[in-house]
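Hi W.,

Here's what went into the run:
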Amino acid sequence: MIDSHAHYDDEAFDEDREELLSSVFENGIRKVINVGASMESCKTTLALSESYEQIYAAIGVHPSDTGQLTESDMEWLKEKSSFSKVVAIGEIGLDYYWDEPDRDIQKKWFRRQLELAKEVKLPVIIHSREAAADTIDILKEYAGDLTGVIHCYSYTKESAREFLDMGYSFGIGGVLTFKNAKKLKEAVAYIPMDKLLLETDCPYLAPDPYRGKRNSSVYIPHVVAVMAQLKGISEEEVIRITSENTERLFHI
Ligand code: NI
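Here's what came out:
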């Protein structure tokens, strides 16, 4: 299995990071993409990717952290994006669940980082929460120039159609196992198998029966089981196809 979206640099792992990562790699996880969300976590993400052969890095700034961004930060990201372990720009996007920063600021830096991805020819990892329409509109401005994944997909199958038409893939994690995830299950049933990736977003969003606890890649089989059921294929097929999808998208 490949975890296409994790935050192992998070302080939630400070006490046992090394031990936990050993058990992750002993339990069938072959590769992990660790995703930066702030300038600080881009640095810790790069450090992790240098320490572990199986860990790749995505660098970018989450919409909630765009308030203080500057052009020199963009220069720094551009420089680091040429490192061989950096495989994507992300996570970037829009988050209207929170009022801060202002939507115009979020949009400005979303576009700026999409520009960066286009310039350095890397795929993007998109964070989009309660902002489907604006996310689709902005991504349409770059349609044909960018590829990537809508991480922790949370919208309808109708919105999925729009992202599919632009060539995007979908990151699916613990939420798929929740009893109230009817809309997501419909979307996953609808999305073609070659556009689905497995992810954790750990330490967040642990699947049932660990909901609310600290998440890690070792729980991914709980997501695989539900996906296999929804798609009417074996768990082995889910693992094989999602792994191929992730390797193809990020060239890892
Ligand atoms: Ni994340």
